[in-house]
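Q: Structure tokens for this one, please.
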Amino acid sequence: DDEKEKESLRSQKEAEAPFTPFKSVAGNANKRKSFDVQGSGTPKGGRLDPEKLQSLYGDCIKLANDNKITAKNAWSMNLLDHIRGLASAGETDFVTAGCTLDAAGKIYSCRVDSV
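A: Here is the predicted structure, written as tokens:
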């Protein structure tokens, strides 16, 4: 009887367990909306050519260094949607990558603060 009761409690706890992304199935409906349905990582507005991507990175890094990122303008910066392009750009150095991640962190924190 004890084993049946323990098994019953285990199954009940598993059913009531909070959602964790590590247990979710890859085709889950809770995927990020900024990426396409196939999961290839394409941003909503499409991929940017390398010149526009570098311009986007440069503008966001400049705004982050000047502390010009606010809760109002953080939503208009789409650096977070195109951050994957930084890894695919072959000539990116660690300084650029670090500054871009810093800018992305500031944008994300301002977005969180505005909610």
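A few notes: The chain has four helices and no strands. The helical segments are 2-16, 50-65, 84-88, 94-114.
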